[in-house]
Amino acid sequence: MGKIDLEKFSRYSKPGPRYTSYPTALEFNSDFEYESYLNYLEKESGQLSLYVHLPFCRSACYFCGCNVIFTSKGDKLSRYVEYLKKELAILKEYLDSSREVIQFHFGGGTPTYYGAHELDEIVTTIKSYFPNWGEEAEISVEIDPRYFNEEQMKVFAKHGFNRISFGQQDFDERVQQEVHRVQPYDLTKKAVDLAREYGIKSINIDLIYGLPYQSLESFKETLKLVLTLDPDRLAVFNYAHVPWLKKTMRKFDETTLPSPATKLAIFQHTMEYLTQNGYQMIGMDHFAKPEDELFAAIEKGELHRNFQGYTTKGGANLIGIGLTSIGEGGYYYAQNFKDMKHYEEAIDSGKLPFERGVELSSDDYIRKAVIMEIMANFSIDIKRAEEEFGIDFREYFAPSLASLEEFVSAELVTLSEDKLQVSQTGALLIRNIAMVFDAYMQKYSGSKKSFSKTV
Ligand SMILES: C[S@@+](CC[C@H](N)C(=O)[O-])C[C@H]1O[C@@H](n2cnc3c(N)ncnc32)[C@H](O)[C@@H]1O
């Protein structure tokens, strides 16, 4: 990639979704018809992807945008396990639980804030409700290396976990102190070594750019260090700064956040450096070695995007279990309560703890397919979309294509008879490009407090 004009590109910095769903979570609402979602679940018989949210953390990482609960009270953790069990029992009434599980993910929070014994109890319970796990099932967990020991690793190994994602974010001491997460290199190395000792073949490490006090120089060091751990995958997230939603982010002095131009320089360097070192960029923020299945999926144009990021298992019905978890399938998204009290009350009254959701219109459904394709594969197969949805692409998306013109004339996108292709440089602005296909953008155009910035 040639050098880009960072100042020019900075002008594209504006609030925009990350498109882990379409419509975005802002469109989820409490008027949502749960009954029709439950009817859908009852009828389905395909493969399952299970997401289980373990929300607790010992202390706050100030940058964190996830749904977490800070606590030092062990009884809160145990009480939640009891509610997970009850939720699973209710779920079984609506779902054919003999369906094949092809993907399982423990997210958080900090799943390994739970000790080995409770982790074992949770996985054993889930397996008792969902006994049919595919031979090749992808079984993964997010781990904070500061809370990880061999006993826990033994439990994961026993249950066939084959992917681990470690949170690192940055190795720079100053940045670590500022974000309230001091995690020295040796600690992460020990965690990675432990996982490898127990046969984990796919290790991911999360980094974030855009944090306080980060510079191009400091991030170059972080990248060098992370490669000494030889991760199979890397996620390099653009820091989503949403202080109106997350109180801990208000602790940052915003003048210490790198400018959009610095962030672009960091990410451009990241793309170049990781590519030179044998990684391939996957979607907007992932990198993987060429032998990774994500890479093969890209080659075949079969990479998908959902709440778990990028995946090869796009066809499976995603079931969210636990506080704030989101399920996805067919024409639906459904999200569980974010508030523990409401979550528990729903379960106590024998209901699935849905707080909100959305049933997609046929227009949502078409746009979802197009936006997810562009977010995952940086291209749209126009002919395929026309055949699948019975539309004339150019006519259906005329206003979107008019908005796309600025990207076409800047040579960030090329549009031919049957293909829309985002260029390598255009990949830096993939969220902006996807936004032209989003029917809800108009609604948020005046609002600064909707989404994090795209650059
Ligand atoms: C729940 S955490 C991972 C598990 C574990 N608690 C940890 O921190 O290691 C999920 C990941 O989301 C990413 N993340 C969290 N907040 C973010 C934000 N505001 N912007 C971008 N990425 C974020 C981080 O890279 C983090 O590792």
Concise summary:
The protein is built from 17 helices and 19 strands. The chain is an alpha/beta fold and 455 residues long.
Account of the protein in words:
This protein is α/β, with parallel strands linked by helices. The protein folds into two domains: about 1-25 and about 360-455, Orthogonal Bundle (Arc Repressor Mutant, subunit A); about 25-320, tm_1862 like domain (pyruvate-formate lyase- activating enzyme), CATH 3.80.30. Helices cover about 40% and strands about 20% of the residues. It is built from 17 helices and 19 strands. It has helices at about 5-10, 35-45, 75-95, 115-130, 150-160, 175-180, 185-195, 215-230, 260-275, 295-300, 340-350, 360-375, 380-390, 395, 400-410, 430-435, 440-445, and strands at about 50-55, 55, 70, 100-110, 135-145, 165-170, 200-210, 235-240, 280, 285-290, 305, 310, 315-320, 325-330, 330-335, 355-360, 380, 415, 420. A nine-stranded mixed beta sheet has the order 9-10-8-7-6-5-4-1-13, sandwiched between helices. It has a three-stranded antiparallel beta sheet with strand order 14-15-16, with helices on one face. Helix 3 (about 75-95) packs parallel to helix 4, helix 4 (about 115-130) runs parallel beside helix 5 (about 150-160) and helix 8 runs parallel beside helix 9. The radius of gyration is 21 Å and the shape is globular. The two termini are about 20 Å apart. The mean pLDDT is about 95. Bound molecules: S-adenosylmethionine. S-adenosylmethionine (SAM) binds near residues 144 and 208.
